[in-house]
Amino acid sequence: MASTNILNPNPPEFERFLYAYVGEDRRGSAVTVLSALARLNLDPWAEAAELAALGREGAATRFGLLLARVRDVPALGQDHGPVGRDLTRLLPEGAARPGSTGAAAKIGFPISSGAFWAILAAFLVLAQIMFGGSSGMGE
Length: 139
Prior knowledge:
By secondary structure, this protein is mainly alpha-helical. The chain has one domain (12-109). The protein is built from seven helices and two strands. It has helices at residues 15-18, 33-39, 44-54, 56-68, 80-88, 103-106, 113-131, and strands at 21-24, 30-32. It has a two-stranded antiparallel sheet with strand order 1-2. α3 crosses α4 (56-68). The longest helix has 19 residues, at 113-131. It is elongated. Keywords: Membrane, Transmembrane, Transmembrane helix. The chain crosses the membrane at residues 107-131.
């Protein structure tokens, strides 16, 4: 049985990349790849998996373009291409896309959260019917 980390269900192979330092924002806060992607309203782990699946050149190009959209980190200015190229070297080789049968897809729960809640609701309704009794019938 594969162990899942409920407290951190995200694939650990992307942590080196996602926690890498990108630069400092205008307020003096450190910006990591994770926070830069979050500032762009992207899911950092999904984006890291997509980048890893593109290969080195494709990932460097795409990530450089994403970094160009992060406007509040002055150091990225004209250097977004080289920074993106350097940081994509931290991505694991041959990582799978989300939803595939690769290593990244094997981490997590075997059913979706929607299916889980539907099964739980059905169970609670059945429990109510079985143990709740019938109000006012047969009295």
